[in-house]
Amino acid sequence: MAISHQISFSLPSISCHKINQRNTSARINCFSTGQKSSRIETTETKTRTEYKPGMLDNVFLNLFRDKMVQEIGWDSEKPGYDGLIDVAHRIMIGRSNSEATESAVRILRALFPPLLLELYKMLIAPIAEGKVAAIMVARVTAVSCQWLMGPCTVNTIYLPNGSSWSSGVFVEKCKYLEESKCVGVCINTCKLPTQTFFKEYMGVPLVMEPNFSDYSCQFNFGVLPPPPEEDSILKEPCLELCPNATRRREINSGTNTLKCPKA
């Protein structure tokens, strides 16, 4: 995979729906409506696959982090992935949720040559009612983004019209979500901006369904996301491990249900 100073591969985020809830972590009371935008075929495994970093992983990480730093004008003193997570949290500071999402969209756009995005949207996205483009980005995502999310595989999803496409990507345990420990960081720097980026700049609709219990995530390329008011994932409470939620809970010790202050 050749790299100049731009990357021509698809870079997603971290999210998924409640596909597998056997492995649960401590949660604050959840009030999700359990909405599903599409049905998914997945093969359950008893043990998770270990991802072995490749030669180009540090190149991808450093380039992505550089684009984040250029956007917000701040960098962490920590090296590697820990520093990237610090920068992701920093995106949320001093910005509204919508402003953080817009910043993340600009970061994703900066990773690609503008002409490549325009040509893909104009020439590839319309083929076969979007099926070809959705299948292509699913495969590129599964191959190129494991350094960010961990092990993932292409799977078959069922669209609302009943047809099936092999345009899903299932992330076994999202490293970005696991390390950030924050629903707000997941939603506002990954799920929403990635959905916006693919739809607006590549012509491929996408629904991301993070599972905040087991940290898995389902990408559904070719499926339109629901309106924000109908997206149950946006109503999820914060993880107990989230430092923002911990501080909020200490202040409001009498409340049992706590929505992530940044979600």
Fold blueprint:
Layout: E1 39-41, H1 57-72, H2 80-91, H3 97-110, H4 114-124, H5 131-144, H6 146-149, E2 152-158, E3 164-171, H7 175-180, H8 183-202, E4 206-210, E5 217-221, H9 243-251
Antiparallel strand pairs: 1-2, 2-3, 3-5, 4-5
Helix pairs in contact: 1-2, 1-3, 3-8
Describe the structure in brief.
Mean pLDDT is 82; it is low at 1-46. The protein has helices spanning 57-72, 80-91, 97-110, 114-124, 131-144, 146-149, 175-180, 183-202, 243-251, and strands at 39-41, 152-158, 164-171, 206-210, 217-221.
Q: DSSP strand (E) fraction?
A: 5-15%
Structural classification: alpha+beta
Question: What is the overall shape?
Answer: globular
Total beta strand runs: 5
By DSSP (H or I, 4+ residues per run), the number of helices equals 9
- Strand arrangement across the biggest beta sheet: 1-2-3-5-4
* Average pLDDT over all residues: 82
Secondary-structure element pattern, one letter each: EHHHHHHEEHHEEH
Low-confidence stretches: 1-46
Radius of gyration: 18 Å
What characterizes the major β-sheet?
A: 5 strands, antiparallel
Share in helix:
40-55%
- End-to-end Cα distance: 35 Å
Protein name: Beta-carotene isomerase D27-like C-terminal domain-containing protein
Organism: Forsythia ovata
List the keywords.
single chain, alpha+beta, 263 residues, 40% helix
Structure report:
This protein has 263 residues and is an alpha+beta fold. It is built from nine helices and five strands. The protein has helices at residues 57-72, 80-91, 97-110, 114-124, 131-144, 146-149, 175-180, 183-202, 243-251; strands at residues 39-41, 152-158, 164-171, 206-210, 217-221. The chain has a five-stranded antiparallel sheet with strand order 1-2-3-5-4. Helix 1 crosses helix 3. The chain is globular and about 45 Å long. It starts with 38 loop residues before the first strand and ends in a 12-residue tail after the last helix. Residues 1-46 have low confidence and may be disordered.
